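Entry 14. Structure prediction run on the chain below.
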Amino acid sequence: MTSVLPSADSGYLPYFLLLSTVAGTYNAFQNHFVIWQSKEIYSRKSDEMTFLAGRMFGIWTALASLIRGMATYNVNDRVAYDLAIGTYALATWHFTSEWLIFGSIKPNRGSIGPLIVGWTGLIWTLTQRDHYLS
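Output returned:
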């Protein structure tokens, strides 16, 4: 099992990247078949979460997961690392703006995870950039 896990020689960020990759991959797949979890995230405007919107969100999440997965095993590569920062920045902007600007999200069990993962990933990758890329 340890052969598939990333190295933690320089820190634990690769494990967080892997965790968010796995969670995102699950979310991407489920958005192609059921949308009740996404309706829970966007609970203030759940009627706007259609199967088409779910599939589009699923593809967007799959791309973010692919980038984060590459960064998991290439955490010292500048391009992979910076792209991972970008995925967290976009996710953080999306979920925070949907909550505070557009009003489609209310904090609940469905939305708290994406908000925490987005903010944690963004802050962690930004503050540790020099450590992993030096």
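The mean pLDDT is 95.
Filed with the rest of this week's runs.
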